[in-house]
Design goal:
Outer membrane lipoprotein wza fold like; 2 domains; 12 strands; elongated
């Protein structure tokens, strides 16, 4: 593959895409999934049944029951691994603390007389989301506890008078890194009706977009908007997007 050519086409597409974002005014929300399958935030600020998964940037406190010389206070690297004494790097991202404890104990089996270990997450630096579009202050939002999409909008200064709250778009990263878009109705009428959209829980790396109105091809728009965030705002949440969605080249890239 000609990577120079691919990069040039990618940059050209991104420049053209800037015009598409400012010019398109219709999001066909019927092309998007609704909120029916999205986790809701409970009254206690927790998503019922949710498990915490370790993420890059998290600070971990690792303590052995008996081999205290091997205790560590370390961050999870950007690639999701941690480095410890006498063993190969261990994948931490995507595991629960208990699962990582088991992986570390297994790595030290045969090297220590007692490899029992506990893992505690001391800080959650990987928790952030982005909100943009017709809000007062588009921004990256640090997540220090449970928060709904609606609460995130309030944190961003609320809706502009030009906003179209019936067609809010939530972009969520799937397990394969690809983005999936959801349509949320956060209008006054939806609030009066008590729709579940009001209680949808924000997750790390979510992107919320509040439009003025829709875009002809919702799926293409999602790719365009994420690329815009990456190139022009420098926000990287690890989405996998098609570099050449306008050229027919199927090459993918992770950003």
């Amino acid at each position: 593959m000609d990577w120079c050519g691919a990069s040039a086409k990618f940059l050209l597409t991104a420049v053209l895409m800037g015009g598409l974002l400012s010019g398109c005014t219709t999001i066909k929300t019927e092309q998007m999934a609704g909120s029916q399958t999205l986790p809701l935030l409970g009254k206690d600020g927790v998503v019922p049944g949710g498990k915490y998964l370790i993420r890059p940037g998290d600070d971990l406190d690792i303590k052995f029951y008996t081999a205290k010389d091997y205790d560590e206070a370390i961050p999870v690297r950007p690639d999701g691994f941690i480095s410890m004494q006498r063993v190969s790097d261990i994948k931490a991202a995507g595991l629960t603390p208990d699962e990582l404890s088991a992986a570390i104990s297994k790595a030290y089996t045969g090297k220590l007389s007692d490899s029992s270990v506990s893992v505690m997450v001391k800080s959650f630096k990987g928790f952030r989301a982005y909100i943009g579009g017709e809000v007062a202050k588009p921004q990256v939002i640090p997540m220090e506890g449970g928060i709904t999409v609606m609460q995130a909008i309030y944190r961003a200064g609320g809706l502009r008078y030009t906003a179209h709250p019936e067609s809010v778009v939530l972009i969520r990263k799937q397990e394969n890194g690809e983005p999936k878009s959801y349509h949320l109705d956060l209008s006054d009428q939806a609030i009066e009706l008590g729709k579940n959209d009001m209680a949808v829980a924000l997750q790390p790396y979510d992107v919320i977009y509040v439009p003025r109105s829709p875009i002809a091809n919702a799926n293409l728009w999602v790719t365009q908007y994420i690329t815009d965030l990456l190139l022009f705002k420098g926000i990287n949440f690890g989405f996998s997007v098609n570099r050449n969605y306008n050229s027919g080249d199927s090459s993918d890239g992770t950003f």
